[in-house]
Fold these 4 entries.
Entry 1:
Amino acid sequence: MQTVALQKISSTKIDFQNLVGKSVEIQGMIQNMRILSWGGFIILRNQDYTLQTVYEKSAINFNPEALKTESAIRIKGIVKAAKIKDLAISPRDYELQIEEVTVLSEPSEYPHPLDISKKELKVNLDTNFDYRPLTLRHPQQRSIFKISACINASFGEALSELGFTQIVSPKLVFSGAEGGSNVFSLEYFGKKAYLAQSPQFYKQIMVGVFSKVYEKSTVFRAEKHNTSRHLNEYYSLDYEMQISESYEEIMHTLANVLDYIFGKLQTQCAHELALLEVELPSIKNYLVMKFDDVHETVFKEFGKDFRGDNDLSPEEERLICSYAKSNFNTEFVFVTHYPSDKRPFYTMDDPEDPSKTLSFDLLFRGLEITTGGQRLHKYEDYVAKMNRMGLSPKEFESYLQTFKYGMPTHGGCATGLERITALICNKSNVKEASLFPRDVDRLTP
């Protein structure tokens, strides 16, 4: 038995600029290799870099022919200035002249079932997902999830700076937040429980505690779809806040959070954005339209008649985003005042027209990425609306007690991490922005 003093861990990043001509050691995985007559290249992948290293056959202690991609190795070498064109390499202005290579581990199956050393990962989605532990190592695939990680972290940073408190709510719950049937049920010590389809109830409760809260969490939707827009398990970026005058404060907050996120992506994911050839959007201005006005505009501008529908179709979302881009030079459209019968029971109706709600969706590049709005805050209003919608207030007692004790006017929204990531990365299927997607047909890997 012994006590061990705390040992500080330093950054693994290398100050290449100040180490030119000096020897360093770096550890990682072999992403790719090129063996030439005079020597060759080993591309080394680790948490910080996809680094080009170069060797001459006359000056090495290893057999290049014996090396396997996806082996873990340690390289000792001299830092050299370089000019590298390959966008998959980072950094591109330095390389390592190899002195020594030590193999730490090797793959037991070789060659691999897929070649991830190519510039493009040209496989269909099912193959991509079947071999996910391998395909995720491809530079472009890694870039998607570096961008996703930055969005996720920046969301919390932006809200923390605005005075929000992060919360963590249960994912085993007594009822679905939407009051519908699209929930996964399970047995819970002789009772029926459900996997949370939203942290909605809990973040509302916590507005009474902290006034402004946010949560980042997995949510579950038991919907039997298999489309490019949906997942049965996805990651939701939620916040809930006390408002002073209008539900529009929620929208303004979201616009500021997205602006913060895009700024962080620009500085922290420049390599990944360049590799994916992504142009970041700007939300310095955005369009706000009422639901009925969207119907009218689409009919007038495109000759498509959706008037009378109580929701927006995928085609209508794409068309109105195209209209916003062409006429207002923005990729963001807030659609407000959705019909009451298409919004959950906790949504506040518009006092001027109770058939509409003080709610919104945010559309981006033809797809809804955020749903939000003002909530009811009086107990009596909840009971009345639930009875009107055929819901039993008794089934929601633990949630409704919050409003018996007094609550401020409040509202919030939820943004799907996979959706916004996919759209930023120009991916047509939201599953490509999920590490291990879950849909009606897929439960592995």
Entry 2:
Amino acid sequence: MSRRAFALLVGAAFLVAHSSIAGSTAPAGLHCLLAPADTLTIFSHPDTSRLWLSGQTNVIFQWHPEFHSPYSGPNSLKGESENATSYVITLFTGFQVTKTTEVFLDVEATGGSGLSDALGLGGFSNLDVVRNPDLGKEPYIARGMLRQIIPLSDDEVDEARGPLALAPRIPARRVEIRVGKMGLVDFFDVNAVGSDSHLQFMNWTVDTNGAFDFAADTRGYTGAALFEYDDHDWAARFAEALMPSVANGIDLDWHIGEARSENLEVERRHDWLAKRPGVVRVLAYMNHARMGNYGQANAAFLDGRDAAPTIEAHREPGRTKYGVGLNVEQSLTDVVRAFARFGWSDGQNESFAFTEVDRSGAIGGDLDGSVWQREHDKIGLALSINALSDPHRQYLALGGRGFLLGDGRLNYATEDIIESYYTAHVWRGVFAAADLQYIWHPGYNRDRGPVVIPGFRFHTDF
């Protein structure tokens, strides 16, 4: 870790931990990404209806000025000034068949683009961006799944009703089964302070564990079966999911003997810190896919067998990639919450589904606007530090290209990102936000950057 990165990490931790405002705020539980307890919408959604119908739009504009860039490659963040606008429109539908059985079908459309077509950064600046600019703008099915609740106790607890959960009360001890098309990060690595790019941070590795190469197609969805056990203060979930057929591909591989993903997370809810609520989540995953190996690609180029380092030329079915993660959220006062994420992957085989990050750490927090009489406003600050494994960095230094990175050469350093945002509540379910990101060593390259990326977001929940 660089001295600058360490100083930023300590500074962010100090800012969050030493706020002088006192009190307590309960963190959101499972499904906080799409159904936080205090969600504001244009139209009301009564608990008595078995049908769920809602929608959202999210528009993000980002820009960066010219920055220091003595050289660049085909997968670089462009050194000259540029801007980009993206949008996501989603229609959420659900139906409560019985008290314990629910079905969901969500339709989505995305458009616009990200800066440099979402290339050149491990922690890209806009989580809404589809990583393949050649995909069309036609609507597609984002989620289509069945939720089955199996009660294991008579006592019930309240659940925030929303697009992924329709029962207003559920058994405190239960098993849940979900089968169908879904986003794994709707359920794994969720964090009430840093998971929602529509109301919180925008950067990929602030909102998600960058080293969690979660199974997904280019748009972020996969076919999966998820099993979860919930008790009063802890939960455990496991999912078996489909991997894409190629790195960053839109098509999923159904040869599950050679291509699949196992994901396990244990969650502990607590009030250890001054009786204030918090959550600790520990994650482990293993991906199986037709991956290329960085070491083999490097050796083939250095031995003269390949004209250039080419990861695609060294793919074999059934290869594995595994990793672990730690995810913490903690209420510090009535209006201040903190979060931290740490992730590690083995980094021997190619990044395949999410982003090119092998080690990742993030820390930050948010402050509720009730301090200045704006109870639905929010301000946030976070630091993310990303790193690569030795063979991955050598591959890029030799001139290799991944599905996101490739400057043609590499003077390696950690990619350090600091992000802040202010989200303002405009009216009912309408929000506007300003965002600022400062990135040292974009694409892990000490020779390029730093780059500053201001952004603006307009979000509506119907």
Entry 3:
Amino acid sequence: MVKLKGKRIVVTGGGGFLGGYIVSELNKLEPSEIIVPRSKEFDLRQMDNCRKIADGADIVIHAAAQIGGIGFIDQIPGDIFYNNAIMGLQMMEASRQAGVSKFVTIGTVCEYPEFTQLPFKEESLWGGYPEETTAPYGWAKKILLVQGDAYRKQFGFNSVHLLPVNLYGPKDNFNKQLAHVIPALIRRFVEAREEGKKSVEIWGSGDASREFLYVEDAARGIVLATQYYEGTKAVNLGSGIETPIAKVAELIKELTGFKGNLLWNSDRPDGQPRRQLDVSVAKSFGFEAEVDLREGLKRTIEWYEKSRKKDDI
């Protein structure tokens, strides 16, 4: 067990969606200091900045990432790969040089092969190439698993790699260019309701499935792993429940009060066909999802309705 009370903890990406909830969860455990480096001041693509951040830290949780939906990745796949890879590689190396006692990498379910037997087991990670539309992001994170394993073998460096599924919740990114499936659908349905539209177009066929994890649950799982997980293999963080995108859309339609029709655009990509995780390893260190999809969507929609701005882009 790693005791977090009195420790100096760095959370890269701590000002972001997931990172903010990680910081809140950590604060419950009374660390001496939580450092949240801001990208405007500390560009993690520069090694000197990584060294400054890691200096004097006991624990580093690397949650910083450049990511958006399928369309966003398709526009700048090179940037997505390079920026995410270099930030992680350098942050881990700087942490090793600084003598950090534990490094926690927040990876992604996109690291799994496109066609993986359900439920996804951690040992299946190397069974094939990731789904093409998200592969630049998946590979950028996956190489950090290799780096962590190599550093453990050569230097005895304590690094763990977590694989959260699709996250959602209040404070998510609802920007049209960056939003993932749940915030994108919430925004479309709310706007369509207000504009009196009779239909909403949705990318894909609706047949693909995803597993979703409420962001507060994810943050709790990450902090539990920071305390209790010492394994050398990546570990899944999810609910263990597979849900078709069509069902998610119908649920959001109901909860937002949109009365029109759904138009599925099958010319647009579905992404990975199916996702569902085996979460038994996470259960071994005390993590289980607590907020079900309906309740989580309700909370997220309520937050969006109250906080959104009319000039939001």
Entry 4:
Amino acid sequence: MMTKNLNLYEIIDNLRLKVLAIARNISDLQNIYVENYCVGQPILFLLNIVDKIDSGQIQVINPIEYKLIQNTTTEEARLTSIERLLEKKVIAVILTDNFQLTDYELEIFKKYDVPLLSTEQNYEDFVYFLSVYLRKHLDIRLSKHGVLLEVYGEGLLLLGRSGVGKTETAIELVRRGHFLVADDCVNIRKVSLTTLIGSCPEKIRGLVEVRGVGIIDFIQIFGIKSIKKYTNIDIIVHLERADSKFNRIELKTEYEEILGIDVPSLKIPVKVERNLAIILETAALNNKLKKQGGTEYWKKIRT
């Protein structure tokens, strides 16, 4: 597993940003950690077109768009908009193209203790560069022994002891029109605060070990369309021997943490007479329904 911590001081130092307004010692910015890969672009928020903004993002202001605000609004309205933004506790705000704000605007940043930074780079180039930089330095990943599939658009990570039937179940699901992403080794990468992506190591992509048969070339047998390079990890499914204890009805959704993200988790008993492929298809559809809020009515009529 590889994890990286990135603080705001490092970003300022490595990207050679100027500090225009700050209410603390610059060394204190080592205690402000950046965890979000995405770069915020708050112009629609400043124009009161949208009401929501991610407080965990670094915000970059396009000077061309901000000049439009300056030309069409009063200074009082601009100051109010900036205050609304800073009240969201954003990590920092960066101006590109060496753009400058008024003294009144600078004072608001000090009041709300949000660092205001500046770069001489143009807006488009800097947003792209900052996005790449954040993804590179916030890279968090691990590997798990298991099988990853995409079923009805939902990523299912199958875990369990060797011989429990993970690979055989994957083959049956692919025969039913679903997709295999990885067998045996699953690389998991955190790409945002809420999203995990799973993939297969390049050297073993498309190769599957079937007990009693050996290693098969999945692409040769089932075709290139049976394989996907990556998918989100939406559900963790533990396949366990049927002699384990299970609740017949589980109304409460269980979760399992991977890289700081809680993922819905299921335990499914394995028996000879059970069709695991159908069960996993149902689990995928049920998870999709839950994400769309479709189980709320079910809960209400039973309470």
